[in-house]
Amino acid sequence: MKNIVIIGASGHGSVVLDCIEKEGKYNVLGFVDSFKEKGTKQNGYEILGTENDLLYLMEMFNIYGGIVAIGDNWTRKSVVDRISEIVPNFNFITSIHPSAIIGKDVQIGMGTIIMPGAIVNANSEVRGFCILNTNASLGHDGVMDDFSSMASGVRAGGNFHLGKYSVVCMGVIIIENVRIKEQTVIGAGSLVIKDVGGYVVAYGSPALIVRKRKAGDKYLSGNRNKTSVLPLMANTITDCPARLQEPYR
């Protein structure tokens, strides 16, 4: 099997590791993480260094490529861009847990992770660097655009379109023929019955826009008290809070 690394040694990285091990297509050598000490271990695997060490690591250990295991969509995009600068033509792998159900004529892009129990129905497209989390379901003819994510337990009807960098948090239900545009967050437990524009946070049953947001605004509950301007190795997308700050005024 080809040797790979997992970039990001957070809780999300542990779940990605499990998917890769269960799939059995690649040999995981260890983690790459800029915020954990080299030589320490995560789930029995060593932290091999940071992304700045990738060229050396690839030559030393005959590494084929890897996967970016970072829950926050914008941070994941930033790390992918950084790795592409350091190692042009880096092989970003895709991993699909064996318990996931993939329908007929489905397309799945590079760098995407599909978690245990997830369902991608017929004629759908999950583009690059997406996360379809545990027991989430994408209806027939659906589209998840690049760097978008659906958290655990999301149920999306047919002909759903999720825009770039947008996230649907835990337990959301989306009826058929809905479009959510780019950079939008749908709060946990919401019911979405109509289109939602870009660069907003929407929440409730039915979901209503509660505030605006900017590209890169944090949304994972593990980030709410973070003040560092450094990129964050975010927790799993399942950490989306149910109530997302105060309504926009």
TrEMBL record:
CDD domains per UniProt: LbH_AT_putative
Transmembrane segments: none
Any one GO MF annotation of this record: acyltransferase activity
Keyword set, alphabetical order: Acyltransferase, Transferase
The keyword Transferase appears for this protein: yes
Binding site for substrate: 10-12, 71
Top-level division of the source organism's lineage: Bacteria
Annotated PglD N-terminal domain residues: 3-83
NCBIfam families for this protein: NeuD_NnaD (TIGR03570)
Family: Belongs to the transferase hexapeptide repeat family.
Protein name stated in the entry: Sugar O-acyltransferase, sialic acid O-acetyltransferase NeuD family
